[in-house]
Amino acid sequence: MLASLFLIGALVTTPQMSVQAASQSAVEESAGGMTRAVNRMIGGIASYARWPEGSPAANRQMCVVGTPRLAPRMAPDTPGRGSISVRPMTAAGVTSDCDILFLGRMPVGDRRQLIAWVRGRPVLTITDDDAACIYGAMFCLSSRSASLSFSVNLDAIGRGPLRVDPRVLRIGSGQGGT
């Protein structure tokens, strides 16, 4: 993909357009790195969550609602820890098959409805559209100057039957709370 962008830039005769093609490829390369980082982080967070007994651990279902801001292609990386399949859906279409609920950009009403639905259920909630982690998700991803971090909403974690290993809780900034 990057090679084809450079090739397109080489075929264009004006220097201004060549510079635009080169900067577009740099942005795409940077976005690809962020996508990989987001997918690794989601996989890592999920690997530290413990679902209640009787919940199959090998394969998890992540439902993506809304438009993710940081990673256009969701494919959580869980090396050696089972797999996470990804299914995009609407707020109205979320079902109990979702082990992980990823909340992207969406109307506030839909977000509130989904957070209310999750309470008391064994569903891990992650968002990239609430850096302050105040709207009810358990983990909130944020990006600053090409680095990825997350906040932990201890209140949201405490409301459900999932258990999260304290080691991941110490890594997150823990600033959230609802």
Automatic annotation (TrEMBL):
InterPro entries: YfiR/HmsC-like. Residues 1-21 form the signal peptide. Keywords: Signal. It comes from the Bacteria. Pfam families: DUF4154. This is DUF4154 domain-containing protein.
